[in-house]
Amino acid sequence: MAPRFAFLSTYPPRRCGIATFTRDLAGAVGNCEIVAIHSPEDRILYPLEVTDLVQRDGRADYSRAADQMSESGVAAVSIQHEYGIFGGRDGDFVLDFLDRVRVPAVATLHTVLRQPSAAQRAVMARLLDRTAAVVVMSQAAARLLRREYGADGSRIRVIPHGVPDLPLVESDQRKPDFGLEGRSVILSFGLLGPGKGYEHVIEAMSRVRKDCPDALYVVLGATHPNLIRSEGEAYRDRLRRAVDDLGLRDHVRFVDRFVGQEELGRWLQAADAFVTPYPNLDQIVSGTLSYALAAGRPVVSTPFAYASEVLSDGRGVIVAPDSPEALADGLSGLLEDADGRAAMGRRAYAFSRERIWPRVGAAYRELLGQVSGGVQVELSPEVPYGAPALVAHG
User: Fold this and answer.
1) Hey, which end of the chain has fewer CB within 10 Å, N or C?
2) C-alpha to C-alpha distance for 21 and 80, rounded to whole angstroms
3) Do 105 and 157 have their domain in common?
4) pLDDT at 390 over 80
5) Going by DSSP bridges, is the β-strand pair 316-318/50-55 parallel, antiparallel, or unpaired?
6) How confident is the prediction for the chain on average, in pLDDT?
7) 287 and 144 in one domain?
């Protein structure tokens, strides 16, 4: 009988990058059940594959869920780790789960900090000690784990961030879907919040529009729910004021909503260039950048760790951080060079083929099977992941 696996993570319909990642990964692995990290204030109807909930800030719930999972017959559990999604100090409640669970655990690390606090370092040390293996999504993260945390290299697996299997199409074919005909489209997407450097791109557009009068920067995505709770739309309002102050209303467009996978794919295909202006140069993974590569879109990016790795060999343009001038040079250069842009996009697309979700799912199946001692076979989940919710929790 094919082994069954579990995932401990946030999960859709919660609007969270790790939740979306887990849904796509679990669907690619197949034959899985989900234990969702849940905040009581989120009134959510989960889909059928969610078999249990852990109240984020209820410490006893982590041990209870570990006991239930240990008796459920699953062969191994994949924990999607980011400090902020679990309760306790720097998410240390997840350690109660690991101390109690009696099936092998693999942790996917969505954040590896170069300069952690003492508490964050302690959480990571115990996580490394209590898991059978850890997964990171870049060689830079693997090196950091070995160098700064003393991790055993034999227990680290580099499995790339999965991406959808999108067809490579000319951007002009998709632009009519969004009323973008005749525009040179630059795109960023993701949950909106400070720390992504969008204000630098807005400033850069003052120069880009002079070089390319038809240029349009699209910022796609709703504001992060945590930011909404703490300050409402103050950050988006600051960006809008910057657009007005620079006279860029015809050159910057905000699409203020959360879009599904199908629509996101069309937005990516409608773009002529993608930009990741992130100021945090230690960032070890970017799902948005991964998705841009999957659409075959050339990328202009600051040299954060993940971008420097995946955009090598002519798959993108790396520019200086915190520099609107450098962003303007990179973006104008791409928009003015149609042949170079197309060649860069083809290289990006070819690179992404090894990262489509079926291949990433197979790599996780193999790893989870290894740590559980099971034998892997091709699987097809009986219930489609992301099917309409039939059972309400919490």
Assistant:
1) N
2) 9
3) yes
4) no
5) unpaired
6) 92
7) no
Does residue 155 belong to any structural domain of this protein? yes
Cα gap 112→243, rounded to integer Å: 34
pTM for the full predicted model: 0.90
How many other C-beta atoms can be found within 10 angstroms of the C-beta atom of residue 201? Answer: 24
Same domain assignment for residues 345 and 264: yes
The whole-angstrom separation of Cα 383 and Cα 206 is 50
Based on the domain organization, do 115 and 95 belong to the same domain? Answer: yes
DSSP structure string for 213-257: TTEEEEEESPBPHHHHHHHTTHHHHHHHHHHHHTT-TTTEEEE-S
DSSP 322: T
Phi, psi of 125 (to 5 degrees): -60, -45
State phi, psi for 362 to the nearest 5 degrees.
-65, -40
Instruction: Measure the CA–CA gap between 12 and 23, rounded to whole angstroms.
Output: 7
Does residue 121 sit in the same domain as residue 48?
A: yes
Percentage of residues in the chain with pLDDT exceeding 90?
86
Q: Angle, to 10 degrees, between the axis of helix 234-245 and the axis of helix 198-211?
A: 20
Q: At 15, is the secondary structure helix, strand, or coil?
A: coil
Query: Do 144 and 181 belong together in one domain?
Result: no
Q: Which of 141, 90, 81 is nearest to 108 (CA)?
A: 81
Domain that residue 326 falls in? 171-353
Q: How many CB atoms lie within 10 A of CB 207?
A: 17
**Residue 388 confidence (pLDDT) above 80:** no
In contact, 268 and 229? CB cutoff 8 Å = no
* CB atoms inside a 10 Å sphere around CB 134: 25
Read off the CATH number of the domain in which 283 is found. 3.40.50.2000
CB 5 within 8 Å of CB 75: yes
pLDDT of residue 374: 53
Q: How far is CA 266 from the centre of its chain?
A: 18
Average pLDDT of the residues in 11-24: 93
Query: Which tens digits make up the pLDDT trace of 324-340?
Result: 999 999 999 999 999 99
Residues 360 and 349 in one domain: no
